Amino acid sequence: MHTLPRLLPLILVIGTQLLEPMAQSTDSSVSSSHAYLAQQALKDIGDRAAPISGVDDGCVRYSKTCDWMGKFPGKTKLVHMNIPGTHDTATWNYSDATQASLIRYTGPIPPARMYRCQEHSILQSLNEGIRMFDLRVAYNPGNDTLGFHHSQALLAPTTRVEDVFFALYKWLDSHPTEAILASIKYEGGSGTPEDSAFYEKLYNVLNSPLAQKYWVQTNGTLGTLGEARGKLTLLRRFSWDKLPVGLEKRFDIPLTPDVWTDNGKNIELVYNAPLKQVAYIEDFYDASADIAKGSGTAAYIDAKFNATTAHLTQAATKNPDQLYINFASAAYISDTPEMTPQIFALGVDTTQGMNQRLLPWLQSHKGQRFGIILLDFYDAVPNLVEAVIGL
Ligand SMILES: *[C@@H]1O[C@H](CO)[C@@H](O)[C@H](O)[C@H]1NC(C)=O
Ligand SMILES: *[C@@H]1O[C@H](CO)[C@@H](O)[C@H](O)[C@H]1NC(C)=O
Ligand SMILES: *[C@@H]1O[C@H](CO)[C@@H](O)[C@H](O)[C@H]1NC(C)=O
Ligand SMILES: *[C@@H]1O[C@H](CO)[C@@H](O)[C@H](O)[C@H]1NC(C)=O
């Protein structure tokens, strides 16, 4: 277990009472019992994370994508890279069965297909080359710990955000050339309180001694791949306004909701005014803004494909030193026939979805800068992730 040394400090914090008296000893049987205890604590956290993180199935099947960032020089700027991501990452196991098992918390809500955007777990997607996650956070039932939601859908009742971060730290220990970008957003439709205690808890999770080792500590600007390797970089899609005074530490890229135009095809978001750093974002999630109801599946997918490729073309040709983020994903639209995130991504019958159409588009633009591309159901079209990266 070569991942233990970096994680040990936290486990010692967790088990301070138990471990401190023994930590003085040099007796090897004591240190081997520490290692065993640490392993068990790590397993316990991993089990609690699993409904959202999934389990790490190793790299054997994914030799091309598992450590793809290792081939890029450390001096590469993150804004120059093509980074595949997943939209609404934590929904990957949200089926009608999962929903039924959580109904005592949520009450009756619309079918799972409206909320579900992924089907591979976070750890599997890391091995498959995904490096950016869209995490929607709100209170777990009881309003005490922080967990994962997509609108009204609670995704796991007892998994805490810090459990999932732990799983990511462990993965990074095994993949030290890789960098993960994490977008965190308070999930509004969840019906949970967005109070100062929520932000204080989130602040404390992100500022724990362990988190400080694993999150890039630079504030307000993206650096190089070398600086981000082995770490998480925080893209902050929430405001710290409700934080109690005194909690001043910042190490994030502020993409705050007040400047994130709703349903924008090319949002121009200044995240660092002194350095004139801008994020250009395509977040046209609701294609019904352009398309009359009843126009059919192909028309919706066309509108989304146009918005995505128009933005990717800009990423390839303009503002080479600025950040580009493209949501190639889409939200549910109530129509006949209905449009689910899966139908947008993969089409239906003979109508191709975003992912089938993006694959040749990306391949024919190989070598160009696209920036970050967030996908739904990325795994269902083989080689799509490779085409984003440019492998
Ligand atoms: C995925 O959901 C199913 C159905 O609710 C559940 O049985 C299974 O344990 C879940 N998988 C994980 C990794 O939590
Ligand atoms: C959690 O917050 C919700 C929304 O404000 C409230 O309805 C619920 O009663 C709270 N639950 C607990 C255990 O405080
Ligand atoms: C962090 O960076 C942001 C964006 O550049 C800036 O507005 C803020 O003042 C910085 N905060 C601290 C504590 O340095
Ligand atoms: C998408 O772009 C194509 C080609 O430019 C155009 O023919 C079509 O009308 C556009 N569709 C929508 C829905 O914008």
Secondary structure layout plus pairing:
Layout: H1 4-14, H2 16-23, H3 28-53, E1 83-86, H4 96-101, H5 103-106, H6 122-127, E2 132-139, E3 146-150, E4 153-154, H7 161-174, E5 180-186, H8 196-206, H9 209-214, H10 225-228, E6 232-236, E7 252-254, E8 267-272, E9 277-282, H11 297-317, E10 323-327, H12 341-346, E11 347-348, E12 351-352, H13 354-364, E13 372-375, H14 384-389
Parallel strand pairs: 1-2, 1-13, 2-5, 5-6, 6-7, 9-10, 10-13
Antiparallel strand pairs: 2-3, 3-4, 8-9, 11-12
This protein binds 2-acetamido-2-deoxy-beta-D-glucopyranose (4 copies).
One 2-acetamido-2-deoxy-beta-D-glucopyranose binds next to loops.
Keywords: Signal
Protein name: PLC-like phosphodiesterase
GO molecular function, one term: phosphoric diester hydrolase activity
Describe the structure.
The protein has 391 residues and is of the alpha/beta class. It has helices spanning 4-14, 16-23, 28-53, 96-101, 103-106, 122-127, 161-174, 196-206, 209-214, 225-228, 297-317, 341-346, 354-364, 384-389; strands spanning 83-86, 132-139, 146-150, 153-154, 180-186, 232-236, 252-254, 267-272, 277-282, 323-327, 347-348, 351-352, 372-375. The protein has a single domain (8-389), classed as TIM Barrel. Helix content is 36%, strand content 15%. The strands form two sheets. Strands 1, 2, 3, 4, 5, 6, 7, 8, 9, 10 and 13 form an eleven-stranded mixed β-sheet that branches. The protein has a two-stranded antiparallel sheet with strand order 11-12. Helix 11 links the parallel strand 9 (277-282) and strand 10. Residues 1-5 and 11-23 have low confidence and may be disordered. The structure holds 2-acetamido-2-deoxy-beta-D-glucopyranose (4 copies). One 2-acetamido-2-deoxy-beta-D-glucopyranose binds at residues 299, 302-303, 306. Residues 1-23 form the signal peptide.
